[in-house]
Structure formats: structure tokens, C-alpha cells
Amino acid sequence: MKIYTRTGDKGETSVIGGRVAKDDVRVEAYGTIDELNGFVGQARSLMEDEKFADVREQLLEIQHELFDCGSDLAYVTLSDNNYKVNMEMAERLEGWIDSLESENPALERFILPGGSQLSSVLHVCRTICRRAERRTVTLARNSEVNPEVVIYLNRLSDYFFALARTANTRTGIADVEYVRGKKVFRN
């Protein structure tokens, strides 16, 4: 099988149910999710240390779920039986977030991306996830989409924030606090 098809040479691509321009909002939404998935893979590759075995497995599951998100968004028209992303996936993320946050020091100030290399990459994942969420919300304004994808992406960005902090905690590196503001979080 050849990897190239030449069917997109004129700026169009196939989606489930038709063809659209490669810069269509639908393609932009699931393309951003694909970009996120690449950075999640990079983050996993930085987790060779055994102290990250648990979250390495979580990230692998998330990579599969990101594919599910992209699949759900690739449908031009959906019915409930086509959906892969569901509320249980977001709820599971909440449990993971709570567990990660229990390891982290109390949050007093806003956090800047940084600290360890792994934490920095996870912050990149968080920001790309937020962009994927924005693109999906834009798509949902004018097209039928699985609403659980928006919820999942919203929760996933929180997961990446918590995990970025945990990456610093587990490696003994302090978070980089935004120091030009007052303490904004009360515990």
C-alpha cells in the first residue's frame, strides 16, 4: 500500500460523509487534536523513569481517546450510536486529576510553564488542548458534534496542568510561579 494518495493535492480531504477543504473548521479541530496527540507521545517518551509508570499508562490511554475525539469530529452527521467519546472518560480524568493534585504542593500563585523538561512539554500539551477545545467549540456552533468531546478536552487540559505540576514534584523541581501578581489561590 502506498502512503500517498494524491487525492488531497487540490486542497481537499475526506471526512466521514464527504469531502471538505483542508482548512475547514472540522479539519482544523481534529487536526489540532492530532497535533496534541503528537506532543502527548513526546511527553510519554520523556517518562522512562519508573516513577512515571502510572502516568505513562494514563497518557497511552489518552492517546487512544484523542484518536476517538478526532474520529467523532470527522463525522459530517452523527447519531448517538456513532459516538466514541463519553462522559465516563471525563469522569475518569477527574479521578486522575484529584490523585495527581494530592501529590502537589498547595497552589498560591499562577504557574508559568517550566521547571523540568517533562513539565514544560506537558504545559505545551495543555495549551494545545485548550486550542483544540476552542476549535471544537467553533465547529459545534455551526455543525452537529458529540458534545462530550468538548467536555473531555476541557477536563483533559486540567489533567495536563495537574500532571505538569506532578512532573516537577516527582523530580524535585519547583514550579515556576508568576511572581508579578498577588497570591490568588486560597487553601
From TrEMBL:
Catalyzed reactions: 2 cob(II)alamin + reduced [electron-transfer flavoprotein] + 2 ATP = 2 adenosylcob(III)alamin + 2 triphosphate + oxidized [electron-transfer flavoprotein] + 3 H(+); 2 cob(II)yrinate a,c diamide + reduced [electron-transfer flavoprotein] + 2 ATP = 2 adenosylcob(III)yrinate a,c-diamide + 2 triphosphate + oxidized [electron-transfer flavoprotein] + 3 H(+)
Coiled-coil stretches noted in the UniProt entry, renumbered to this chain: none
Enzyme kind, highest EC tier: transferase
GO BP annotation list: cobalamin biosynthetic process
One of the record's GO molecular function terms: corrinoid adenosyltransferase activity
Domain Cobalamin adenosyltransferase-like: 3-167
Pathway noted in the entry: Cofactor biosynthesis; adenosylcobalamin biosynthesis; adenosylcobalamin from cob(II)yrinate a,c-diamide: step 2/7
E.C. number(s) listed in UniProt: 2.5.1.17
Keywords: ATP-binding, Cobalamin biosynthesis, Nucleotide-binding, Transferase
Keyword presence, ATP-binding: yes
Similarity annotation: Belongs to the Cob(I)alamin adenosyltransferase family.
Protein name: Corrinoid adenosyltransferase
